[in-house]
Each structure stands twice: as C-alpha cells, then as structure tokens.
## 1
Amino acid sequence: MSNSQKSSGAPPALLFVAGLVLMVGGTYASLNLKIEAIEKLNEQGLPLDLGKTVAVIGVFLILFPAIKSFFLNPLTEAIETRNHQLEDTFSEAENLRAEMHKLRTDYEARLAETEAEARFQIQNQIKEAQNLRQQLMTEAAERADALVRQAQMEIEQEKTQAIATIRTHVVDLTLAAAEKVIGENMDTDKNRRLIAEFMDTVEVAS
Amino acid sequence: MANSGVARRYAQALFSTALSHDVVKSVEDDLNSIVGLLENDPEFREFVIAPYTGRDAKIAILEKLFSDRVTALTMQALRVMLEKRREDEIIGIRNEYVTLRREHEGAVFATITSAYEIDGKQSKELLAKLEKTIGKKIEAEFKLDTTLIGGIRVAYGNYVLDGSVRGTLSSLRDKLRHDLLKQQ
C-alpha cells in the first residue's frame, strides 16, 4: 500500500518547486492584483484573498513532502512495524494456540488413556479385592464350621467320657460297698463253703 | 553274680547223680538247709559269699559245719561249688534242683492263698481235687491274704485259678466296665 502511494505521488522536489512558485505567485497576486469579483465579495462582507489562498496552497505543497518525510513515513513505518509485530505476535500466538491445542489434545488423550487405564486397574483391583474377600469369607466360614464341628465333637467326647467316668465310679463305689458288706459278713464257715464251692466248680482249660 | 545257665548245669549234674544213688530227697533237704542258713544268717552268708575269704578256708569251715549233717554227695557238690568260685550260685542251684526234681516226678508247685486258714482236712481235699483237675502231683505252699475277703486262689506255673471273693468282684468290675465301654 505504501509502495503504491509512493509510485502514484509526484516527486518531492517537483512539489517543492511547485509550492514555491505558488507561494511567491500567490503573495505577489495578493499584493498587486485587484480582481473586481473579489472586491465585490469584500464589500459584501466576505473577505476572500485568492492570492493568499494560492500562497497557502504553495506552502502546503512545500510542507507536504517535509511532513511526509519526517512524520508520515516514520509513522507509516512504525505502523507497519507494529503491524508486522502484531502479525508475528498473532502468528506466534496462533502457533502457540495450535501447539497448546495439540498439547491439550495430547494431554486429554493421555488423560483419557490414563483414566481408562486407571479405571481398568481399579476395576481389576476391585474384582481382585472382591475375589479375595469372597475367598476370605469362604475360608473364614469353613474355619468357623470346622471349629464348631471340632468343638461339638470335643463336647460330645467329653460328655461321653464324663458319663463313662461317672458310670465307672458308680461301679467302683457299688463294688466297694459290696466288698465291705461281704467282708463284714465273712467268717471261717462261709470261707469253708466258698472253698467247697470252688472245689466243686474248678476246671482247668485244656 | 548269679547265672541261671551255670546254676542249671550244676543242678542237672547234681540231680542226675542223686537220682542214680537214690538220694534225691536227701540232697534236696540238704540244699534247703544250706540255703535256709544262707538266707537267715547274714554272717554265714557274708562268710560264704565274701570274695576275700580263701576257698580253702571256706571249704574247711563248711566241711566242719556240714560233713556230718548232709549226705556225702551234697558235701562233694558244695566243695566243687566253692572250688569253682560258685558260692553265689548255691541258691540258684537249689532252685534249679527242685525244678528238675519236680519235672522228674511230674509234679507242679502251686501257691494256694486264702483269706482264712484252711484246716488239714479241707487242705487235703483241696489238694486231691487240684491234683485230679490238673492231672499232676501238687506241691503246695499255703499263704494267708486277708485282702481276698473269702475263698481261695491257686497259682501254678503260668495259671491262676481264682475262687476268691476279691477275684470274683474284680471279674465283675471288669465285666461291668467292659459293658459300659460297649454302650458308648
């Protein structure tokens, strides 16, 4: 755009010369030339000096290249530089945004993958824990059943043993009482009869 | 130290000699006398058994003691035992001799234990019955044991014929315990 303006405009030297001419000519005309139409406008309250106007245009033509050279061009260059910087910044920002988007996509993908892996592992751990729990419960139940069975068996054995002990004691007490009674009632005659009975019944195993 | 094999050999030799001379009973009585003295007189026993007493001294003393009280065969056997240093086998030789004599006579030794003393008549009847039942001559030793309560118990060889109240009660106890065990 700036190149087209430079190519379309007149060279500065030409403008300077043209401006000088217009300024000198306009000043001369304002001082020396009297134009009837303009005089009439002055009389009517519209002070118009055409020579000054031309001189001012000449001044503008002289000042324009200077303004352009010392103000517009640096400004344009600064704007363009700024635009370039902005474009670079935007481009960099866009690149960064794209990279960020890519990183975000990758991150999200990794996150999703990690989450899926974590879910999978959690599910596996949960299943394993459930299996372990079930196994432990089964073992505990079996152990408890075995303990109960053993306890019942021991109780039954002790009960049987206690009954047998009581019966044995009853037998011993009964026989001890019988022994005492027999002993108190035994005498020589009864002993003689017992020996006689022994002689009648004695046998030897062949 | 007593050795039953040695005692058996000495007893066999002595018994066969006594049998050939028909002095079995006399020799047995002699041996019983000597053993009774050994068992009841500690000083005599110490003199006979003591290893520090010379064998000639022992033979001389024992000949003085027994030469006119025992048969010549018994004295000769005693002399041989002392010469062979078999003093501690005398009791074993007597026991083996008695066993050989019983085997020869077909007799058995029985211990008859009773709670009360058995009179002579009943003891004879008892021995006759036992000899008839066992089929052998009985040499009995009678003992008293009040724990039997009543009745008698006859032990011979490896057998026991128990007719005592104690034995009957023990059998009853065993039977009742056996029945109780079967009920469980």
Note: Chain B has a mean pLDDT of 88.
## 2
Amino acid sequence: MRNPREHGQRRKLFARGFSKSYLREHWEPTVRRKTLLAVEKIKVDAQTGVADLLKWWTFMATDIVGVLGFGQSFGMLELGKVSRSHP
Amino acid sequence: MPWLRAVGSRIPFKPLKEAFNSSAYILGYGTIAVENARKGGQDSNLMATIMAEAEKGETHVDDMDVRTESTSLIFAGSGTTANTMTFLSWAVISRPQLRAALEEEVAKLHDNFTDADLEQLPLLNAVIHETLRLYCAVPGSLPRVVPESGATLNGYFVPQGTTVSTQAYTMHRDENLWPNALV
C-alpha cells in the first residue's frame, strides 16, 4: 500500500486499538499474565539446568500476539513446545 | 519470486515444505481472527477493534484485509520481541554492575506495579533503548520513494521516484551520534 490517502485511512483504523491507553486498559493484564508465566518457566529451567531464553521469550511473544491479534493463545508457554493447534 | 514458491512448496522435505507454506498456514489463523472478532465483539482482539472502527467510518475493510493484517501482526510481533528480549537479558546478565543497578531500581517498585510505573524508571528504559539501538530486530533497509521534484540530501540530488533507504545497523553505530557507540 503506497497511496498516502489509502495508508492514512488504514492508519486511522489502527489508531484506537494501538493507542497506549487502549492497550493498557484492555491488554495489560493479559500481557502481564503471559510474562509472569514465561519468567516462571525460565526460573524452573534455570534452577534445574540451563534455560533457553530465546525459546521462552519466543513462546511468550507468540502466545501474546495470538491473543491480541487472533483472540486465541497458541498455548506454547503452557505446553513448553511449538504448538500448531489452538484451544 | 512466485516460481521459487511454486517449486519450493513441492519439494518433499518437511521443514522446507512448512517454510514455503507458512504464510498460508498463518493466513488460516487470520480467518480464525475474523471469526473470533465476529463472535466476541469489538474488544475481543485487535482485529475486532479495527473492524469496529471501520464500521464507524467510510473506510472499507474486508475479511481478506483483516486476515493479512493479523498475519502481519504475528510476523511483526513475535520474533522481534523475542529477539529483543533475549539480547536484553544477555546484555544485562553479562554486565554485573548494570545488573545490580537495574535490580536495585526495580526492587523499589510496589507489588502491584503497572506498565505506567515501569515507564518512569530511567535505568530500565535506558537499557531497553540501548538494546534496541545495538541489537535492533529489523536493522535492514526500509525503502522509501523520493517524492515529486526530488530531494537534495547531504549535497547529493536524488531524483523523484528513486527508491532510497537508510538502515539502522550502521546509523545506530555512528560515533558522531553515539560516542562509544559499541559499548
């Protein structure tokens, strides 16, 4: 999309959903829950051996974007592995 | 390159097949986003919010738009965050002094801290900004087109319609902008 008018219209549609106040009001608890879960998982792994940070942060980010973008988590944090299914 | 896709998606090797078909797979998730948005109302996911905004105004958004936008979201919102978080964790852990100072700063937070509280922490925010500067998740070129009548940049004339781009990797390491850029 390179037409400035079209882009402006599309941009406007995103404005409310991506504003800081909207994100905090509607999604902060979700993000917080997923982040805490990721930290828990990292802690368990680190205490029993080695924690793969990239793996857990990827699961965290993917699950969060799943909820925010699709309305469903991929459940990777809970599973501890890559998930193709959805609940 | 459509031909590469056409050939690539037919090679009988599972990981390759998955890579070539991944956009179709994620597009399938976009369809779920549309369904969930219809079911759950305007605050059920970000796509629903966008669809609700579209209904208020004259801008039309069809299901395909929602699917492609939600597909962009997952590409843009997963690997970038994970990558940045990993570099940030490593950068802090490998600097014991910084780690201690950061721990001291966050220890002052009360139990029910919010995102707004975190925004007020100078060291935490400096760490985030420096991580984004040095280990930027998308350091590549972001192409733009020179507008009508062209532009003169740094003494060079660039005619209109030319595709130009800057890229973050070297700019974020420019000693004129960042003294001790690599620290």
Note: Strands of chain B lie at 144-145, 151-153, 156-158, 163-164.
